[in-house]
Amino acid sequence: MILGLSSYTFGWAVCVPGHAPAHPLDEHGLLDKCREHGIKLLQIGDNLPLHTFDDARLNRLAERAAHEGVQLEVGARRLTLGNVEAYAAIARRLGAKLIRFVIDDAEYHPTPEAVSIVLRQSVPLLAGLKLGIENHDRFPAALLREMIESAGSDRIGVCLDTANSLGAGEGLDTVLRELGPLTVNLHIKDFHIARVSHLMGFTVEGRPSGSGMLDVPAMLADLAPFKRCDTTVLELWTPPETDIERTIAKEAAWAALSLAYLKPLFTTKA
User: Fold this and answer.
1) Strands 71-77 and 130-134, how do they pair?
2) Which of 25, 106, 145, 146 has the fewest Cβ atoms nearer than 10 Å?
3) Domain ranges in the chain?
4) Model pTM greater than 0.85?
């Protein structure tokens, strides 16, 4: 399995709405991060929306990634047939093999039946590509599995995020049991759960990989028998500091700590 970076490794530097840095990290800044850390895989998610790039910008990205030997993956949100078609075209243009989609978007929360229809209709658009649907807050893992299996295609699987399903009240054991066989891409996002000081509840916060509650070696052992997941990307939930500059510096430090832990567990060459 190949280890990569994501635009969500550096989410604050790319830009969290309402917290824009003076000089946001763009696609070339992300490629600089890959070069700095010796990484040959980059997943660009919906926080740097590729469908807003013009032809020249997409061409520059494709040319530089190819020149530096970095395999690209693309990500989006709002699962519609038109968006799948658009991102399939972008993926081919960038030489990407994987499209990762979050189903929902602002004011867009399709029913399970509607999702299943989009997935079935998407199959003819995916020649040479894989579509990974990310587990998120709204759908429990078993229902997401039903929707994906209803498409009847091995080109459609799961982008398994190790923390997102906490928002649906499900732990990683449940997620792996239901979605492990369908996983085509893995998002490693470590976390810590702590009881609040007044004891009436818990908080969930991100941690650098290897310093939270996520048992990465055990998870990889659980996924290995299915032989469908070829790529993994690091994502971070970095709690903010008092200003955006300190937050970005902390995020960069967490990325370096995480990669130092993860690199021995993966290959870094695409």
Assistant:
1) unpaired
2) 106
3) 2-265
4) yes
